[in-house]
Each structure stands twice: as C-alpha cells, then as structure tokens.
C-alpha cells in the first residue's frame, strides 16, 4: 500500500512517487491535488484487491476514481521537473552558507525537507514563524520538528519560488546570527 496523498499526482516530478521505484502498489491513496483545494480523496486498488472486496464494503461508488481523475499532462510534469533544480540548488546553498543551522536537505520535484540542526532550540518553529512574517507558509516535520517542509504549488512560477526561498534562507541565517 502506498500513501501518495501528498506526494502523488506530479509532486515528485513523476505522476506517482512510486514511479521512482520498481514497486507497483496493490493499494494507492491520493487526495490533495485531486480537488485543487476542495477536500477529496481516493483509494485505487489493483484487480486482486478489487475482486476481494464485497459489494459496498469499501464505502464508495465503483468507477468514481475514473470520474475524479484530474487532467495532469506532460507539461505539468515538465514544469515540476524544471522547478526541482532551483529548489535543490538553493537548499544545498543554504547548507553551505549556514552549516551551523542546516544539516541537509532531501526531496524530489516540489516536495522537500530542509533539515535544521537539532541542537538549536526551536529551530524549525523559528524558521516557520519568520517565513510566515514574510508571507511564506511552511511547516515543520520530523520527530524532532527540525525539518522544514517546503511544498510550493505545482504551478508556481520561478520568481515566486525564489522569493519564497529567499524568505526561508533569511530565516535560516537568523538562527545562527
């Protein structure tokens, strides 16, 4: 079973995040990009799982997934792939310019985590608060709250992406000044 509620539908630069691996899920969940802000979700299953479900046991209407599928074309995938480089490069640059604050980054496409030094008290919370003051919404992740999640809109334009990354970089540098 793959949970692609956040990372599916082009977020990683491929239609589904599991397309980066050689594994095909029996069950796949998806949600956020389906409704473009409208709360909607889906569960997709392979034939083996489908034939094991009794009528009405899954709580939805058959073939609903086919009707709910968004139109994600190659141009969106190409855009996400193009926007990945600036994010990756800027986050790597933050690690070089503020190594006492940034310990690493990880991600693909337009879903990234900026790892902050765990020894800086409330580093994640402080970066989130400072970014918010500059109009950029990010949140923390990780069991220690030291990872800043960077998940811009899939259709973001490059100048806005850099503006958001500027705000995050300013907040990161303030951690060690």
From TrEMBL:
Gene3D superfamilies: Aspartate Aminotransferase, domain 1 (3.90.1150.10), Type I PLP-dependent aspartate aminotransferase-like (Major domain) (3.40.640.10). This is 4-aminobutyrate transaminase. Its cofactor is pyridoxal 5'-phosphate. GO terms for molecular function: identical protein binding; pyridoxal phosphate binding; transaminase activity. The keyword Signal does not apply. InterPro entries: Aminotrans_3 (IPR005814), Class-III_PLP-dep_AT (IPR050103), PyrdxlP-dep_Trfase (IPR015424), PyrdxlP-dep_Trfase_major (IPR015421), PyrdxlP-dep_Trfase_small (IPR015422). Belongs to the class-III pyridoxal-phosphate-dependent aminotransferase family. Pfam families: Aminotran_3. It comes from the Eukaryota. It comes from Allomyces macrogynus (strain ATCC 38327) (Allomyces javanicus var. macrogynus). Keywords: Aminotransferase, Pyridoxal phosphate, Transferase.
